Write a sequence for this structure.
């Protein structure tokens, strides 16, 4: 019986992986061809946000920590990268590394404080600390306050490839995006990732198994922050500026929405979410209707009726509930009495 | 004599701090009540505060209804709207992970802010101080605007009143019991779902009251609650949500501390509460009066 | 052994905890003024039966009729108003409420309940400590409070879950006296009890439950004959 079950699970898993591989291959192909049909700057924006959302999901989807402060890492890295490239004259790849390092340090500090409490308290702490960082950016001289850092040169990749060429820039962004995604995939499927998931499922059990849960949570936090920094630094190079928008709490909320919409805890869901939300913001940027009104409505609808997200629903419908285990919805009342 | 000006500045900032603290206290009180029973972090609390101020503003401009009736009507409107939200949406999320409640109310906050910005624009609208409370007292060492004094008094009344409601009345006993064991309270014949709805209404109503109280001091604007709510979250982390009294006291304390920072090191006044939160997390992770580990 | 005139009639009661099927068709009756005890080993479904009758467990099928009223569609917070009073196994004394607040928490649902004064006469300890937090009481006092709390409401059927669990013999005896007093006042009681020495003093009839089903039932007079079989069945 058990043997049969493992085989079916395994074959199902293989099928799932195959489906995912095919989907990813198609996706990469589409992204390579896309700039022929779609405005590259828009595509680059989507890719930056997609990487951001995937990095965020590494924390929420695989560790169960909801951060409402990821804008600090995203926008912070954008500032660091912009400053390094513009003021220190670093090449773009080094500038981005500066951004990643800065975001990782921020992640270490904010993460360290946030995981001192659990659940919803962690969320409030990340939000408050990110807001503190926002005020820091508002007042620190190097960020130039309300103006932000403008006119960041795209420069030459490795000192060779001219990134002011739109196509060069695009393929650089695509490469970084895929590398970032690969890194996340590796993390999730490593023994480390398995431990993270067990922390998410049952923290006290993971503790009783002897795992230093805090250290794992913090490590996940820092990795997520660093990868978010990668996206933020990249965005600063693409758009050649870094402003307060990217460190504001709206940005933190937006990445939550992207992830929720695409599917929390799915590898590629956040990419769909990012593409959708970015398209939407672009569309409503010119309309009278404030974007927040629209995103707010989507948020509420998602939470009420669409909690698995696009990709989560896809898995649930096609491949059983293995990949996105839905929360069992029985009431606390139905739990057996303690005795 | 040498300290003449600093002392005036000092007392002035202390007063501003006390007023900010009044709002922190009222808002963190509402958050704590809602969280205590519903386990929902009400992200829309700042937006509900804003709506409270707008209800006052609209009552005045559309119907000519003045400050005093608005002081009653605004929290009522916000509270009733909150109850509707709880009934239609939040109540469906109780059995899920707590983060969904937070995400839903976050969405609600965005919608409210977006909608009011769409209708009324982003700029602030002045709301005149009521006749009876305009002017002020010359205390010799400083000038105390009457309205500011009233804000402090009103918030104290509301905070203490709410505390008494929860600690000393039968309804409060239901609330405290339902917080511990909702199933048993239901088995005793008390309509706990209704209790939850009322509680959310009470919390939202408190936010609405703070909003109308704030209208004559700050301008009425769609974004007035946005940054405030994040500070209030920090207040709540510092105080811990275990106790109602803790939320109130921490609110006043941090407001005053923030005011003092404006005197001694104005650059840090925006972030002092967050810094205190970080320090508290380092030395006493459960919060000053919290019971949660 | 069914009786259409009984105050409480339970027929074919099934209940589930999530996916796990806990009760497999319980049939039982409790007549007006009677004290009926459910016996059985740990985990056979006694507590579950009480919780399902009360409606705390909503995932249930079968029929529950109380005083001629079909209880199946009645939501939990209405069940008390029909006349069911529930005293949970873990007693459910609220830490954030004083003794007196605990006592007066359940709303009065019908006439015929005791007044607070009567209750204090019955339980003088509670009066002495009326202002201390509920959970500062000893285990025995907490059990008294848990029972007293329901006596105020005018409930007609007391669902009493293991009132003697973990208590000293002298307190158990006191609880026995309280139940005798209640019986004398005409209260109907459905009692879950492991301690059948205690149960034999208060109960009129017994049901033996195993694996979520009633496997035996008998009158208190038949108890001596059943002793040997019971000792075996209950693994005492």
């Amino acid at each position: 019986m058990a043997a049969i079950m493992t085989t079916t699970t395994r074959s199902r898993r293989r099928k799932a992986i195959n489906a995912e591989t095919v989907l990813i291959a198609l996706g990469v192909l589409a992204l390579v061809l896309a700039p022929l049909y779609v405005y590259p700057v828009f595509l680059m924006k989507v890719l930056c946000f997609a990487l951001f959302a995937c990095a965020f999901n590494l924390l929420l989807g695989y560790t169960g920590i909801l951060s409402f402060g990821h804008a600090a890492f995203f926008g912070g890295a954008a500032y660091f990268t912009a400053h390094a490239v513009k003021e220190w004259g670093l090449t773009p790849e080094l500038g981005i590394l500066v951004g990643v390092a800065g975001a990782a340090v921020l992640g270490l500090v904010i993460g360290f404080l946030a995981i001192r409490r659990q659940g919803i308290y962690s969320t409030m702490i990340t939000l408050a600390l990110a807001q503190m960082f926002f005020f820091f950016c508002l007042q620190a001289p190097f960020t130039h306050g309300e103006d932000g850092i403008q006119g960041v040169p795209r420069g030459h990749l490795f000192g060779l490839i001219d990134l002011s060429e739109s196509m060069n820039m695009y393929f650089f962004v695509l490469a970084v995006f895929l590398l970032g995604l690969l890194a996340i995939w590796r993390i999730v499927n490593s023994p480390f990732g398995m431990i993270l998931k067990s922390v998410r499922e049952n923290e006290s059990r993971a503790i009783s198994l002897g795992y230093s849960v805090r250290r794992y949570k913090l490590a996940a936090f820092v990795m997520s922050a660093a990868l978010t920094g990668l996206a933020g630094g990249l965005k600063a190079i693409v758009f050649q500026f870094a402003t307060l928008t990217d460190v504001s709490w709206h940005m933190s909320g937006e990445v939550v929405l992207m992830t929720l919409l695409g599917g929390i805890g799915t590898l590629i869901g956040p990419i769909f979410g990012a593409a959708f939300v970015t398209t939407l913001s672009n569309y409503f940027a010119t309309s009278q209707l404030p974007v927040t009104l629209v995103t707010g409505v989507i948020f509420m609808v998602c939470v009420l009726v669409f909690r698995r997200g696009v990709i989560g629903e896809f898995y649930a419908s096609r491949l059983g509930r293995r990949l996105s285990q839905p929360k069992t919805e029985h009431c606390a009342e139905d739990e057996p009495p303690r005795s | 004599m040498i300290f003449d000006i600093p002392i005036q500045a000092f007392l002035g900032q202390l007063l501003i701090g006390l007023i900010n603290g009044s709002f922190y206290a009222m808002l963190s009180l509402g958050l704590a009540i809602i969280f205590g029973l519903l386990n929902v972090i009400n992200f829309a609390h700042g937006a509900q505060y804003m709506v409270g101020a707008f209800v006052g503003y609209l009552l005045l401009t559309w119907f000519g209804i003045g400050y005093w009736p608005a002081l009653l009507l605004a929290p009522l409107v916000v509270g009733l709207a909150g109850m509707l939200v709880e009934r239609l949406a939040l109540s469906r999320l109780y059995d899920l992970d707590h983060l969904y409640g937070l995400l839903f109310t976050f969405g609600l906050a965005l919608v409210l802010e977006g909608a009011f910005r769409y209708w009324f624009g982003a700029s602030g609208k002045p709301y005149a101080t009521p006749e009876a409370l305009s002017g002020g007292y010359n205390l010799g060492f400083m000038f105390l605007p009457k309205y500011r004094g009233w804000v402090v008094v009103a918030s104290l009344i509301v905070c203490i009143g709410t505390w008494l409601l929860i600690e000393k009345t039968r309804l409060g006993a239901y609330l405290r019991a339902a917080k511990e064991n909702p199933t048993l309270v239901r088995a005793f014949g008390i309509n706990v779902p209704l209790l939850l709805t009322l509680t959310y209404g009470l919390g939202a109503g408190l936010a609405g009251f703070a909003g109308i109280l704030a209208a004559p001091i700050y301008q009425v604007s769609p974004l007035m609650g946005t940054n405030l709510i994040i500070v209030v979250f920090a207040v709540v982390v510092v105080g811990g949500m275990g106790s109602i009294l803790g939320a109130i006291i921490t609110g006043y304390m941090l407001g005053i501390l923030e005011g003092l920072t404006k005197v001694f090191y104005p650059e840090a006044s925006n972030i002092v509460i967050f810094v205190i939160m970080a320090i508290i997390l380092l030395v006493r992770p459960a919060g000053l009066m919290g019971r949660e580990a | 052994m069914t009786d259409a005139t009984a105050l409480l009639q339970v027929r074919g009661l099934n209940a589930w905890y999530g996916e796990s099927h806990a009760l497999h068709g319980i049939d039982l009756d409790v007549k007006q003024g009677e004290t009926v005890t459910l016996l059985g080993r740990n985990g056979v479904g006694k507590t579950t039966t009480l919780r399902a009758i009360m409606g705390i467990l909503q995932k249930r099928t079968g029929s529950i009729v109380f005083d001629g009223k079909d209880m199946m569609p009645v939501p939990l917070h209405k069940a008390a108003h029909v006349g069911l009073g529930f005293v949970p196994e873990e007693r459910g004394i609220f830490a954030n409420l004083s003794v007196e607040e605990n006592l007066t928490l359940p709303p009065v649902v019908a006439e015929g309940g005791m007044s607070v004064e009567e209750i204090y006469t019955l339980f003088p300890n509670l009066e002495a400590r009326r202002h201390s937090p509920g959970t500062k009481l000893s285990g025995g006092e907490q059990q008294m409070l848990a029972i007293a709390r329901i006596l105020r409401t005018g409930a007609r059927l007391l669902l009493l879950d293991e009132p003697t669990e973990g208590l000293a013999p002298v307190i158990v005896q006191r609880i026995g006296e309280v139940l005798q007093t209640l019986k004398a006042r005409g209260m109907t009681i459905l009692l879950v009890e492991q301690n059948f020495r205690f149960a034999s003093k208060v109960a009129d009839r017994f049901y033996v439950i195993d694996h979520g089903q009633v496997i035996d039932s008998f009158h208190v007079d038949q108890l001596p004959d059943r002793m040997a079989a019971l000792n075996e069945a209950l693994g005492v």
